[in-house]
Amino acid sequence: MTGVAGRRVVVAGATGAAGRVVCAALTAAGASVIALGSDDSRLAALAAEVPGLTVETVDLADFAAVTSLAGRTGEVDGLIHLVGGWRGGKGLTGQSDEDWEFLSRSLITTLRNTTRAFQPALLASPNARVAILSATGVDRPTAGNANYVTAKAAAETWLAAVAQSFGTGAPDTAAAVTFVIKALVDEGMRAAAPEKRFPGYTDVQAVGSAVVGLWDGRAAELNGTRVSLVPVED
Ligand SMILES: NC(=O)c1ccc[n+]([C@@H]2O[C@H](COP(=O)([O-])OP(=O)(O)OC[C@H]3O[C@@H](n4cnc5c(N)ncnc54)[C@H](OP(=O)(O)O)[C@@H]3O)[C@@H](O)[C@H]2O)c1
């Protein structure tokens, strides 16, 4: 049993590659998980895969809907935000407004909504953690990825503000952490390309372990940190 045992943790974007593994890891470690997504059938498949989960269908880009859900959810000790999506284009002129709207909505708006809606519950928790999964591309912006890395940088900045709020509102009980990866790899990707190496890719299981481990450290030491999950051997 770890520090996360007995905690109530919300996973936003639970049906993606990382979300499914994070839900399973948290549940196996004894947490009570509330899995959020916008697609009923994908959530039903996740519930069958990870028994014991509570699933909630919600459009995380809709602040009123997220606030209503947070009100119904009650006590919460964690929010793991894993809503993703990628759009790229050829050079700077290939960065379309349509792609920016999509990325802004999925990477920034859903984070703003969930952190604002669950903030009262997180501040009331004796041991709260919030985490996002950002990208190494933020450190090396390219023209073809400009929309994506700008949205990811904004998400990191928002989370730094969440960390600041915890430092004053809940010192040493709440922490917001940015994990950083280049890309994810899972069993399915490895099975589909057995000869392929995935240099610099982070195994989704490592994301699950990192999230579970958030409750093992002191909040004051974790709060506001940016932690690389890129494998060192690559
Ligand atoms: N995959 C990578 O290689 C990679 C690389 C760098 C960083 N990351 C980051 O790692 C995190 C996890 O990535 P991932 O690939 O596992 O995620 P993902 O599959 O892109 O997205 C996770 C889930 O978010 C849900 N979602 C999207 N919009 C939503 C909305 N408006 N309301 C509710 N749910 C919504 C979707 O579930 P529903 O279908 O149920 O709506 C989707 O399955 C993301 O933050 C991503 O940016 C990933």
Can you walk through the features of this model?
The protein has 234 residues and is of the alpha/beta class. The chain has a single domain, classed as NAD(P)-binding Rossmann-like Domain (Rossmann fold), CATH 3.40.50.720. The chain has helices at 17-28, 40-49, 63-73, 97-124, 146-169, 187-192, 204-213, 219-222, and strands at residues 8-12, 32-37, 54-57, 78-81, 128-135, 174-181, 183-185, 201-203, 226-228. It has a 7-stranded parallel β-sheet with strand order 3-2-1-4-5-6-9, with helices on both faces. A two-stranded parallel sheet has the order 7-8. The protein is globular and about 45 Å long. The mean pLDDT is 96. NADP nicotinamide-adenine-dinucleotide phosphate is lined by residues 13, 15-19, 37-39, 42-43, 59-61, 82-85, 106, 110, 133, 135, 181, 183-184.
